[in-house]
Design brief:
Double Stranded RNA Binding Domain, single chain, three-stranded antiparallel beta sheet, binds zinc ion, binds 3-methyl-2-oxobutanoic acid, globular
């Protein structure tokens, strides 16, 4: 019998700390609903005290998402614990996760607390949280650089005060797998009341060790792993959920442990998170990268044709990567369209459905076969999560071997239609320069990436961009069978997000750790 490891997803909290990945409450809710379908045990929905937007996201997720336990992060401060409770109250399964540093480096230079004071704060805040909820998690931040005896004492005191999960963060991604495994064993052997709590781990990827460290901890008795979809998160990111889950599932024989994750939902979740955060998944990324199941070498292909297990340790279908499913055609009606979207987990409003259906009909005219991925691209663009200050009305681009690329663009700006023509070094550059002039943006385009959503030359192109203005970074996403149109949409989506976040200055989560 395998041990069941709890999956604590922190895509919406630590994942959101990736530059440019900020999500608004609507977007977070969409991701949270997909995480529930994926079968995660706990969703860390945000840091309720950090901003009104994060508070609203935690509250709505706690009220509307069924299945997982919903958690809010809280510093070891009374106002944070109270705010977390306010956001969570009334929901059926909730957790407060409070934390304070235990390493001397943090205590001396950042928190300016003695060890004794930090331990007292931990105890007081766990006690306060237990006054509100049964399920309390405590994290000694920077645990891997803390004095181990002091760490044991703080954990014992936190459990004594009522912590039901103790989470061991490798905050700066410093540990090695052997060392981290030993630390978990040490905690099991030296914290007298450890059996009253679940040991959790939270590893960062600065040295590329987040997944190996987490799995080493599972080997030593950790019962919960904190991770994010696509491994997004602060700096180099967190342990990637899909790697942890598929590592445990594929090597159950070795780890003797498994999770409750519905692995067939992995690809869908990865794509949704990538689309909403604008964080592109590298092609060679394990499990969810475009090449993860693509065999290029002749010898491998030959082996696979003879017997799949020659070179395949996981079936692509097991992560939801079966052959792209042909979903609909030109003659499909609105009713069937809505039903298909609902099966994919989307519940559009009447307006969103009308717009998406119109786009679907146009796409069906251009492209014979429409796949699930095409529908996802259409609907995730049409679900209105960010107000559209700028909307693309039309775009014509002329370019060729002997022609200066020229773009003529019509935009609706705050309801008024404006038109402008401009040139550039290539068709995308011409479109982008023209849009920049029309919107008078002061931002800079930092990255631009394009990929085909499905196979074939009639596939929709998907463009992701990253745009910066001062300290603010946002990402944008667009899809169309014409990649110049997709590019323009992605750029406008990013500019709309910039305006949105500037107008809600106080709403972007601010992460202060002390
Ligand atoms: O990395 C870290 O230490 C954290 C804590 C807040 C758990 O994210
Ligand atoms: Zn973290």
């Amino acid at each position: 019998m395998s041990r069941l490891i709890r999956i604590f997803d922190t895509t919406l909290r630590d994942g959101e700390q990736s530059p440019g990945a900020a999500m608004n409450p609507d977007e977070k809710l969409m991701v949270a609903k997909q995480l529930a379908r994926l079968g995660v045990d706990i969703i860390e929905a945000g840091f309720a005290y950090s901003s009104p937007g994060d508070f609203e996201a935690v509250r709505r997720i706690a009220q509307e998402v069924e299945g997982p336990t919903i958690c809010s992060l809280a510093r070891a401060r009374p106002e944070d614990i109270d705010r977390a409770w306010e956001a969570l109250k009334g929901a059926p399964k909730v957790r407060i996760h409070t934390f304070i540093s235990t390493s001397d480096i943090h205590l001396k230079h950042q928190f300016r607390l003695t060890r004794e004071q930090a331990r007292e704060r931990a105890v007081e805040m766990v006690t306060r949280a237990r006054g509100y909820v049964e399920d309390v998690e405590f994290s000694p931040m920077d645990a891997t650089r803390s004095d181990v005896k002091y760490l044991y004492e703080v954990l014992e005191a936190a459990i004594e005060a009522g912590a039901t999960t103790v989470n061991i963060p490798d905050t700066v991604g410093y540990a090695t797998p052997q060392e981290f495994g030993r630390l978990i064993r040490g905690i099991r052997e030296n914290v007298p009341n450890i059996k009253q709590a679940v040991i959790s781990v939270h590893c960062h990827n600065d040295l590329g060790m987040a997944v190996p460290n987490s799995l080493a901890a599972v080997m030593e008795g950790a019962g919960q792993v904190e991770c994010t979809i696509n491994g997004i998160g602060e700096r180099a990111g967190n342990a990637s959920m899909e790697e942890i889950v598929m590592g445990l599932r594929t090597r159950k024989d070795f780890y003797g442990a498994d999770t409750k994750i519905v692995t067939e939902e992995i690809i869908k979740t990865s794509r949704l998170v990538s689309k909403i955060t604008g964080m592109v998944v590298q092609p060679n990324k394990a499990i969810v990268g475009a090449n993860a199941f693509a065999h290029a070498s002749g010898i491998h292909q030959d082996g696979l044709l003879k017997e799949k297990t020659t070179y395949e340790i996981m079936r692509p279908e097991s992560v939801g990567l079966g052959k792209s499913t042909l979903v609909m055609g030109k003659l499909s009606g609105r009713h069937a369209f809505r039903q298909r979207l609902e099966e994919l987990g989307f519940k559009p409003t009447k307006d969103e459905l009308n717009r998406a259906f119109e786009r679907f009909k146009r796409l069906a005219d251009q492209k014979k076969e429409i796949y699930e991925e095409d529908l996802e691209a259409i609907i995730s663009e049409e679900l209105q999560t960010i107000p559209e200050t700028y909307r693309l009305k039309s775009l014509y681009v002329e370019s060729g071997t002997d022609k200066t690329p020229t773009a003529r663009i019509e935009l609706e700006i705050d309801g008024k239609v404006v038109q402008q023509t401009g040139t550039g070094d290539g068709p995308v550059d011409a479109a982008y320069r023209t849009i920049a002039a029309m919107t008078k943006t002061k931002s800079t385009l930092v990255t631009y990436a394009v990929k085909a959503i499905t196979g074939g030359t009639d596939a929709q192109g998907e463009v992701m961009v990253r745009v910066e203005e001062g300290p603010k970074t946002v990402t944008g996403h667009g899809a169309d069978t014409d990649i110049i149109v997709a590019s323009a949409k992605a750029y406008l989506n990013a500019l709309n997000k910039l305006i949105y976040w500037k107008s809600r200055k106080d709403d972007a989560p601010k992460i202060h750790y002390i």
